[in-house]
Amino acid sequence: MSAERVGGRNWVTTAIAIAVALSGVQHLIQAMTGLRGAGDPQLLIVEHVDVSIFSFIAVYGIMRGRWWAPWAIAVAGLATAVLVLSLGPLLNLDAASRSGLWSGAVFILVLAALGAWYVRRTLSS
């Protein structure tokens, strides 16, 4: 299995960068919506901003081929998983509403680990 190179990058790495960038944009929009009075707790707004910053740093690292890009993907994924887990207490969700938060956080961590592994593998070759 070989990923073809497009513009100096392989298309899988570019797809990972796009997915991470879209996540960052989505969290930035969530933060701005929370700041405009959507009733989100301040800590949740800060978490959205943090995830956005970590995601944009990861995208920069991926696109520039930096050695630390896999670590940046891992940090962005971990921050996103923490945000998901914090939704229960921050929004005072009942037990039924919290039931999917752990599986969602684990899914995010698995995706981040796979992305970090692939980018590290690509940068090493």
CATH topology: Substrate Binding Domain Of Dnak, Chain:A, Domain 2
User: So, CATH architecture?
Assistant: Up-down Bundle
Oligomer: single chain
Which strand order do you get reading across the main beta sheet?
1-2
**Spans of 5+ residues with little confidence (pLDDT < 50)?**
none
What's the end-to-end separation, in Å? Answer: 14 Å
Reading the helices and strands in chain order gives EEHHHHH
How many strands, what sense, and barrel or not for the largest sheet? 2 strands, antiparallel
Please estimate the helix content.
over 70%
Q: Radius of gyration, Cα only, in angstroms?
A: 16 Å
Number of helices, counting only DSSP H or I runs of 4 residues or more: 5
Strand content: under 5%
Total number of strands: 2
User: What spatial form do the alpha-carbon principal axes imply?
Assistant: globular
Which structural category do the helix and sheet elements fall into?
mainly alpha
Overall pLDDT: 91
> What is the CATH class?
Mainly Alpha
Overall number of structural domains: 1
What does this molecule look like?
With 125 residues, the chain is mainly alpha-helical. The chain has five helices and two strands, in the order E-E-H-H-H-H-H. It has one domain: Substrate Binding Domain Of Dnak, Chain:A, Domain 2, CATH 1.20.1270. The chain has helices at residues 11-35, 42-64, 69-90, 95-98, 101-124, and strands at 5-6, 9-10. It has a two-stranded antiparallel sheet.
